[in-house]
Amino acid sequence: MRTLVLNAGYEPLSVVSDRRALILVLGGKASVLEADCENPLCSVNAEFARPRVILLRRYVKMPMVRRTPVSRRGVLRRDDHRCAYCGKFANTVDHVMPRSRGGRDSWENLVACCLECNNIKGDRTPTEVGWKLRWEPSAPAARRWHFRDVDEAAAEWAEYLPAA
């Protein structure tokens, strides 16, 4: 089970396990906003409602400009597992400007790509192959990308998460 952690200003901060959330609540560092009473967490001496959303008592300062780190999983997630060249299901990542020619690992240079297109393109640019990108790759802009597992959000989290 996962628990959404909100900063003292009610902005989403992270997603933690329900046990970690209970430790924060019992330690006085957070309060429970939403709980699942049907499936309690049990200890030897007590039962506790399983926290679903908690609010930190003290504000945790977040950096103003926080760029989401580039990862294979992130690129596939950003592109919805669709190939940037043909639109089929993608399970690999391709460098638009190949690394052999100085292409970097950046949001603007990486796209999701199906295995067939990736093999055909090789170490060439899309224009050399005669292809065009279906969209212009860019860094994800939504704030909810700064922490994991929010794209599979629980129903109880809906009112606390900004629209992406």
Describe the structure.
With 164 residues, the protein is α+β, with helices and mostly antiparallel strands. The chain folds into 2 domains: 2-64, no CATH class; 72-129, Orthogonal Bundle (DNA Binding (I), subunit A). 16% of the residues lie in helices and 26% in strands. It has 4 helices and 6 strands. The chain has helices spanning 18-26, 72-78, 115-121, 126-129; strands at 2-6, 12-17, 30-42, 47-56, 92-95, 110-113. It has a 4-stranded mixed beta sheet, covered by helices on one side. A two-stranded antiparallel sheet has the order 5-6. The longest helix has 9 residues, at 18-26. The protein is elongated, with a radius of gyration of 21 Å. The two termini are 23 Å apart. The mean pLDDT is 86.
How would you summarize this macromolecular structure in one to three sentences?
With 164 residues, the protein is α+β, with helices and mostly antiparallel strands. The protein has helices at residues 18-26, 72-78, 115-121, 126-129; strands at 2-6, 12-17, 30-42, 47-56, 92-95, 110-113.
